[in-house]
């Protein structure tokens, strides 16, 4: 039996049956499945047990909470009982909000989303965020870690620089991963799985390149094999 790869498959499905089927197909090959807003808002907390399945794969709850601290504290308490491995909040919610999530997360790690991977440098001006995106990501990463976040979400393009700022103990999670030749779709700051791993990402979020494939299990297995080859110690020349 081969070890599962550090990939979180984004189960962005229109219905629970599809999400559960994708989860079953990919879990032999990946460590984590990710439940996002589409699935959670349609089916509620029960969706977590449905995708966790018999193998009890790690579940990443990507709800991107963003509200005043008291509201985020309550929302975090409400979902902590589902025991996700990670729960996301937006770093732009600020230090007190992130701290409120951390204090109420139970066993879940709070992952702060820095700058969405769909945004380009040019989008940041309109949002009033001092750019470029790489600078904003580093600023928000430091703020989030100072507030107690144990994990950060950034693009693989920033993983190296973020790692240098926050050190080895913070889990770096990178969406915006596209195998070479795949369409980028609505993602702006992208890199291949190999580049993401080499940049120091701990968990690669991959959705449509896997779930949109004719055989999601085979697509996950192929990417996992590439990552395993990279992580294996190379023989001395
Ligand atoms: O900055 C972010 C934060 C979260 N996401 C989520 O990751 C997946 C990516 O799916 P793909 O199909 O591989 O594009 C999706 O669920 C997003 O909500 C992100 O893309 N960027």
UniProtKB/TrEMBL annotation:
GO BP terms in the entry: 'de novo' pyrimidine nucleobase biosynthetic process; 'de novo' UMP biosynthetic process
Orotidine 5'-phosphate decarboxylase domain sequence ranges: 6-223
Chemical reaction(s) catalysed: orotidine 5'-phosphate + H(+) = UMP + CO2
EC code(s) of this entry: 4.1.1.23
Enzyme class (EC, first level): lyase
Keywords, comma-separated and alphabetical: Decarboxylase, Lyase, Pyrimidine biosynthesis
Family: Belongs to the OMP decarboxylase family. Type 1 subfamily.
Assembly and binders: Homodimer.
Name the record gives this protein: Orotidine 5'-phosphate decarboxylase
Taxonomic source organism: Actinomadura barringtoniae
